[in-house]
């Protein structure tokens, strides 16, 4: 058996018995290379003196990169769970939610990438090998040789004899694994069906969160509306009279309050009363429909007084208000939901209940 210490291939070397227990793992690896017609041109450690000052410095730098990766991942997780993310008017900390997630994840992934690159370039032995490829099934010996080669490569990574790197990898990669799982698990934490009145099925007009009080219809500035504020044939966009009712927090609640002419109101009442879901939704000659288009959610707000049609500017759907907001043109296929109206003891419009069906484009079929 001939094994050259510097690892170079010696032509003409006789095959060795790979089951010989006296062989070192590196000798088996070399034999595997020889049988595979691999010529190892160069194979030399970057640190001839093990545990030298230079090696320790490289190990420290790589460990630092792994720890930085773990710290970035931890910041991502903390921000993902606890950073305020809801939109708020004005300049608030929630403006930075996406930026913090992006920057922390970038730091984590870049640090991990640089750590792996530095490990490969600075710690692993320099090796240049040349192999002629050939076709053939692998023999038992070849499989043993491959297994030993892989085990040898793991040994050469030096994780076992570099406990600092071992710890840094564990600390760095564990949070990164959690980062991968966080968006999947996080999406399952908030159950949209958990309340008695699930948030997906209520708007700002729902009296339950308003301590059971009927919710007023208000302008964007929060002022309530009396019937005489809307002229005959006129219309006004209204919002729920609750705190933040005109903000994105109640983005599903904008409603069009319309004062119909007497003849039109009579037609509209017949149509709404014929619909079991919309019986009694009108108050006097007033009717209110959701502004969220049932096609794709745009604001349907172009009201044509002469024809009583409500037009959605996005894809030109038209809803006939005197026929219970039936879609008569365009891609929308569902009626606009009606908001049941009444007037409170002070003479202001209130919603006598929330919408009786979900507003906007539904995720299930609705007549
Ligand atoms: S969103 Fe209204 S027509 Fe498409």
Q: How does this structure look, described?
A:
By secondary structure, the chain is α+β, with helices and mostly antiparallel strands. Among the domains are: 53-131; 144-179, no CATH class; 215-351, Rieske Iron-sulfur Protein (3-layer Sandwich). Helix content is 34%, strand content 14%. The chain has helices at 25-35, 53-82, 97-123, 140-157, 163-189, 262-273, and strands at residues 38-44, 126-131, 217-218, 235-240, 255-259, 286-290, 302-304, 309-311, 318-320, 326-329, 341-343, 349-351. Strands 3-4-5-6 form a four-stranded antiparallel β-sheet, with no helix packed on it. Strand 7 (302-304) and strand 8 (309-311) form a beta hairpin. Helix 2 (53-82) runs antiparallel to helix 3 (97-123). The radius of gyration is 36 Å and the shape is elongated. The termini are far apart. The relative contact order is 0.09. Residues 1-9 have low confidence and may be disordered. The protein binds FE2/S2 (inorganic) cluster.
The rounded distance between the terminal residues' Cα atoms is 85 Å
State the helicity in percent bands: 25-40%
Overall number of strands:
12
Global Rg:
36 Å
Look at the helices and sheets and give the structural class.
Answer: alpha+beta
The CATH architecture name of the domain at 215-351 reads 3-layer Sandwich
CATH class of the domain at 215-351: Mainly Beta
Q: Strand fraction band?
A: 5-15%
The name of the CATH topology of the domain at 215-351 is Rieske Iron-sulfur Protein
What characteristic shape results from the CA principal axes?
elongated
């Amino acid at each position: 058996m001939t094994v050259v210490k510097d690892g170079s291939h010696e032509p003409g070397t006789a095959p060795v018995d790979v089951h010989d227990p006296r062989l070192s793992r590196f000798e088996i690896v070399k034999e595997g290379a020889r049988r595979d017609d691999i010529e190892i041109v160069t194979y030399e450690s970057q640190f001839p003196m093990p545990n030298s000052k230079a090696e320790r410095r490289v190990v420290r730098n790589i460990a630092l990169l792994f720890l930085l990766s773990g710290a970035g991942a931890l910041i991502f997780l903390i921000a993902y769970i606890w950073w305020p993310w809801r939109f708020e008017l004005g300049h608030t900390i929630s403006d930075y939610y996406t930026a913090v997630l992006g920057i922390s994840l970038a730091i984590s992934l870049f640090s991990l990438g640089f750590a792996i690159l530095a490990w490969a370039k600075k710690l692993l032995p320099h090796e240049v090998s040349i192999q002629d490829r050939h076709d053939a099934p692998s023999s038992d010996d070849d499989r043993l040789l491959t297994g030993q080669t892989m085990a040898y490569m793991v040994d050469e990574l030096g994780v076992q004899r570099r406990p600092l790197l071992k710890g840094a990898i564990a600390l760095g990669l564990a949070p990164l694994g959690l980062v991968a799982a966080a968006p999947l698990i996080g999406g399952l934490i908030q159950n949209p069906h958990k309340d008695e009145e699930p948030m997906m099925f209520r708007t700002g007009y729902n009296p339950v969160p308003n301590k059971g009080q009927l919710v007023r219809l208000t302008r964007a500035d929060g002022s309530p509306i009396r019937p005489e504020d809307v002229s005959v044939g006129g219309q006004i966009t209204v919002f729920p009279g609750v705190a933040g009712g005109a903000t994105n927090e109640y983005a599903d609640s904008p409603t069009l309050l319309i004062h119909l002419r007497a003849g039109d109101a009579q037609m509209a009442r017949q149509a709404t009363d014929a619909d079991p879901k919309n019986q009694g939704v009108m108050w006097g000659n007033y009717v209110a429909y959701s502004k969220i288009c049932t096609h794709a959610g745009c604001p349907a707000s172009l009201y044509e007084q002469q024809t009583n049609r409500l037009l959605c500017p996005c894809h030109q759907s038209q809803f006939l208000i005197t026929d219970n907001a039936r879609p008569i043109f365009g891609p929308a296929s569902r009626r606009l939901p009606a908001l049941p109206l009444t007037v409170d003891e002070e003479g202001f419009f209130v919603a006598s209940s929330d919408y009786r069906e979900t507003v906007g484009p539904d995720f299930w079929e609705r007549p």
